[in-house]
Automatic annotation (TrEMBL):
Keywords tagged on the record: Cell membrane, Membrane, Transmembrane, Transmembrane helix
Family the UniProt entry places it in: Belongs to the ABC-4 integral membrane protein family. LolC/E subfamily.
Protein name: Lipoprotein releasing system, transmembrane protein, LolC/E family
GO terms, biological process: lipoprotein localization to outer membrane
Residues passing through the membrane, by range: 26-45, 270-294, 324-345, 365-392
Length: 404
């Protein structure tokens, strides 16, 4: 039998009703709340990051290849799609390649006029990630015989033009000679990101080919999704070396730098917040062990008088602190994971999409982060337990027995 662990368990019951009992409860609560807040904070942070990145990638993927144009015009010169796709497929890091084309237009209804950008997509290679943003109606259909006359409007554009699913509208394309097309609203999407919702309408790429008199082999550009977004920089550098001199490659992090900078700022704020939480929890644990030692000074003196070593007594308080840490962590995990599950399945806490780009607080489950937070809390708490136990070696048996 481990004598230190045995005495520690007896102290646990003997502390009931004493001042130490109140302090230990505070220590358990501080560890529990600290761990719970860390789990919730990281889950929400990763949820925000994944939701916003997913919305951005649904419009621009990780990389975008197009004709080099000093004017940065949306009506860019076309590029040969099949040849370039074949070249990109050689890279093992490339996952999905989506052809696209863009063309500016003016929409006219009975009451409103609005300038937009028609983005044509092609689903021959893979399903468009835009499907995840659909909030009303259905997604585009791509008949084999001819170009589809269906379009997807954003919620903002639909509200401005007073259009709903099934309505028709005239699109005026400024070119020589000017062209007019009648499109039908097939569905309505919403990302919450004004950069997209106020500008883009989604349609069939064949409509843009017909307007520009392009053959089927030409596209406005290619959107490339990588297998691992974390390797964006090195992969983009390697792909750029394989491209012809007249093509440019844009990274999504450069195109929408303000959004990715905002995500980085959120990450820094959360890290500072978590450091403060860990500091408070550690301070409470150190204070708790100090109080335990002071209240048990007489007992420490008796144990030393009958032959107990400093390490044995130190182990006794170590096991006491370990017990408090494990209780706090258990409660903290129940609170943190319970709150995350409640929000994940019930969407209990809503958000204003105008300010937060989404209508609810997002939750992302990441087992690795949860394990790392638990391990960090456990190790930090144990370090906080060990620090005050070294005071035991300075307690003299004669003085300790007289201590009251």
């Amino acid at each position: 039998m481990n004598i230190s662990r045995y005495i520690s368990s007896k102290i646990d019951g003997a502390d009931s009703g004493s001042f130490t009992s109140s302090v230990t409860k505070i220590a358990i609560i501080s560890i529990a709340l600290g761990l719970a807040v860390m789990i919730v904070s990281f889950s929400i942070l990763e949820g925000f990051r994944n939701e916003i990145q997913s919305k951005i990638f649904s419009f621009g993927a990780h990389l975008q290849i197009s004709k080099y144009d000093t004017n940065n015009s949306l009506n860019a010169e076309p590029i040969s799609g099949p040849r370039l796709i074949k070249t990109l497929r050689r890279s093992p890091q490339v996952d999905v390649i989506q052809p696209f084309a863009r063309k500016t237009a003016i929409i006219k209804t009975k009451d409103e006029v609005l300038g937009i950008v028609l983005k044509g997509i092609d689903e021959k290679t893979s399903r468009s990630p835009m499907r995840q943003n659909l909030v009303a109606g259905q997604f585009l259909t791509f008949p084999d015989s001819s170009a589809s006359n269906d379009v997807l409007l954003s919620r903002k554009v639909a509200d401005k033009l007073r259009l709903k699913v099934g309505d028709e509208a005239l699109f005026y394309f400024i070119q020589n000679p000017p062209r007019v097309r009648k499109f039908q609203v097939r569905g309505i999407y919403q990302t919450g990101l004004d950069e997209f919702d106020e500008v883009y309408i989604i349609g069939d790429i064949r409509q843009i080919r017909e307007l520009n008199a392009w053959p089927d082999s030409l596209v406005g550009g290619l959107e490339v999704t990588l297998r691992d977004f974390q390797r964006l920089d090195p992969v983009s550098d390697n792909l750029y070396e394989t491209l012809p001199y007249d093509l440019k490659l844009d990274k999504i992090t450069d195109q929408y730098a303000q959004l990715f900078d905002w995500l980085k700022l959120l990450n820094k704020n959360v890290v500072i917040f978590l450091i403060l939480i860990i500091f408070v929890a550690t301070f409470n644990m150190v204070a708790t062990i100090f109080i335990m030692i002071l209240e048990r000074t007489n007992m420490i003196g008796v144990l030393k008088a009958i032959g107990a070593t400093d390490n044995q007594i130190r182990s006794m308080f170590f096991f006491r602190g370990l017990s408090l840490t494990l209780r706090g962590m258990l409660i903290g995990n129940l609170i943190g994971l319970g709150f995350c599950a409640l929000q994940y399945y019930t969407h209990l806490i809503p958000l204003d999409p105008e300010n937060y780009y989404m209508d609810r607080v997002p939750i992302h489950w990441d087992l690795t982060i949860i394990i790392v937070l638990n391990v960090a809390t456990f190790l930090t708490s144990l370090l906080a337990v060990l620090i005050p136990t070294y005071l035991i070696s300075r307690i003299m048996p004669v003085a300790a027995i007289k201590f009251d």
